[in-house]
Design a protein that fits this description.
This protein is of the alpha+beta class. Strand 16 and strand 17 form a beta hairpin. The longest helix has 30 residues. The chain is elongated. The C terminus is likely disordered.
Length: about 550
């Protein structure tokens, strides 16, 4: 049910959905609704499109959304791919970190730096092709709703217009009129004040990376634009701005020289902005026939560049559900799931961006001394912080210290890990039987790791014999998870005091089965070859899995 009353009567095909706000979120919602066959009207109170850059980072999930809309080629050609995060302090490069997308299956393992104005232009062109044109200078002044429709009041250049639509979508930013008219408060707080400037920078920094520079008691971030030598500079400590952009340029140049330890030239910024970080959200993103998306529902720190991306994903989640409900293909409960799904994401986003803000600004006075020491230790430990075990630390598994932009190749198994070539280790509880021989020689050759006596060079019953590498036969068997009575106990090391290693915890193998052999491999790996064959005389004789010696029982 849609009507319009502006003195000229209702249009022949009135809109079904009114979208307030023609930023990236509103444009995404309009494009997705129009793609699904709804009639959409898109209005914005601004006099025209924005010309400043504002948000820049576009992450993998948003790129996938643009791909589904058929817009990815236009955006990729206008942006710059970023796959690095470089840290500087005291004239030194502390680390170059690359994101790990191994747990995020995506066709776009990158961050695309493209200014918001370019993103909006691509989305406006897509909306126009679908018959949706942005109406600039049209302000939403009020609305009421009932069980069947939303009755809105619009202020245009020709006066007041009354429009009735089935649904209203508020994408009108952090100062949302729709949210205020609904009476939904933004809950949260405000914290730091930062300064942003867009300027040309000559500092010899590679533009395939975001750069974090420790300078005095604060930090400076340098984020590359698609254009050559153009950067976004962020000051987290000194946000004073008296209106003179040249003073801002000189202040950035001074701090960058101190942090990078080389000559730096910063041109007069084309745009300077001072803002206070807000960390706020609403507890419900819909009320009746009115829904909210993007900054109208949650505002947060720009650290990690999540604002535009979260808003675009809000709009995408909302649009397909709203289209199905309006067309009568789904019940209202489907649309109710939008708020139930997106509110927890907004809550988690506030927590993660708050942590990112603290890491970016790093105001601790000891950080300037501690950071070089920490990263010097990381470099001494080898690539990705790998020590003698060949395993990287947990932070480095997510952000491997590497100079390559491609994902790190898989590393070979660590020494001592029980893994037979070409096959998986047995599952815990699998009955592997008992070894027939203590240690076998490879076919047609001498043993690569002969077993030697632990003391005095004598083989004696009851002794544990050691290999040259220091591993005893007992340790090898227990390391592979084999109980001395033939029970596989899982891939873990047992000690003498553990229940698995005590003789009192014996368990007989499966009747009528015995293993073919137990082979030793280099570096302490002891794969079990589970070739089991029936023993002609019933249960096989007792074999000691620790010393590999026959028991006194006859019948072998």
């Amino acid at each position: 049910m849609t009507t319009a009353d502006n003195g000229g009567g209702a249009p022949p095909n009135p809109p079904q959905v009114l979208v307030a706000g023609a930023g990236p979120v509103g444009l995404t919602a309009a494009v997705e609704l129009a793609r699904r066959g709804l009639r959409v009207r898109l209005v914005d109170a601004a006099s025209g499109p924005a010309v400043t850059s504002r948000a820049m980072a576009t992450h993998a999930r948003s790129l996938e959304t643009y791909d589904q809309q058929g817009l990815i080629d236009d955006l990729m050609s206008r942006g710059r791919r970023i796959q690095r995060f470089t840290m500087h302090a005291g004239g030194r490069t502390l680390a170059r970190l690359g994101p790990d997308y191994s747990r995020v299956p995506t066709r776009y393992p990158m961050t695309l730096m493209i200014d918001q104005a370019a993103t909006e232009e691509v989305l406006r062109q897509a909306a126009a092709k679908l018959g949706v044109k942005v109406e600039w200078g049209v302000r939403l002044e009020g609305f009421t709703q009932d069980a069947d429709a939303v009755h809105t009041v619009l202020r245009t250049a020709d006066g007041e217009e009354h429009l009735t639509v089935e649904r209203l979508v508020g994408c009108d930013g952090g100062h949302s009129t729709v949210r205020k008219l609904l009476g939904l408060p933004l809950l949260g707080d405000s914290s730091e004040t930062w300064l942003i400037a867009d300027a040309e920078l000559e500092a010899g920094l590679p533009q395939n990376s975001i750069h974090w520079i420790k300078a005095g008691r604060g930090t400076v971030m340098a984020i590359p634009f698609p254009e050559e030598n153009k950067w976004r500079l962020l000051d987290t400590a000194d946000a004073s701005y008296g209106g003179d952009p040249d003073q801002v340029a000189e202040r950035f140049a001074r701090k960058l020289r101190a942090g990078l330890g080389r000559p730096v030239k910063v041109s007069t910024p084309s745009w300077v902005s001072v803002f206070t970080i807000q960390q706020r959200m609403i507890t419900s993103m819909s009320e009746g026939r009115v829904v909210l998306a993007g900054d109208a529902a949650h505002v947060h720190s720009p650290a990690s560049g999540q604002g535009l991306n979260t808003g675009v994903q809000d709009a995408y989640n909302l649009a397909w559900k709203l289209a199905l409900v309006v067309q009568g293909h789904a019940p209202q409960t489907l649309l109710d799931s939008y708020s139930a799904e997106r509110v927890p994401i907004g809550r988690a986003l506030l927590g993660s961006t708050r942590k990112a803000t603290r890491l970016v600004q790093l105001k601790n006075s000891l950080a300037g001394v501690a950071l070089p020491l920490v990263f010097a230790l990381v470099r001494r430990c080898g690539p990705c912080g790998a020590g003698s075990s060949g395993r990287s630390s947990a932070p480095c598994r997510r952000w491997p210290c590497t100079t390559r932009t491609a994902p790190d190749p898989p590393r070979p198994p660590s020494p001592g890990r029980h893994r037979a070539a070409g096959r998986h280790p047995p599952h815990p509880g699998h009955r592997a039987g008992r070894p027939r021989h203590r240690l076998e020689r490879p076919a047609g050759g001498a043993a690569r790791h002969p077993v030697q006596p632990a003391r005095g060079g004598r083989r004696r019953r009851g002794r544990a014999y050691r290999r040259p590498g220091g591993h005893s036969a007992r340790g090898l068997a227990l390391r592979a998870g084999v109980h001395r009575r033939g029970r596989y106990l899982g891939h873990r090391r047992h000690t003498r005091s553990s229940p698995a290693a005590r003789p009192g915890r014996r368990r007989a193998p499966a009747p009528g089965l015995r293993p073919r052999r137990l082979a030793a491999r280099p570096a302490g790996r002891l794969p079990l070859r589970a070739r089991l064959r029936p023993h002609p005389g019933g249960p096989s004789p007792r074999l000691d899995a620790v010393r590999g010696l026959r028991s006194a029982r006859s019948g072998a």
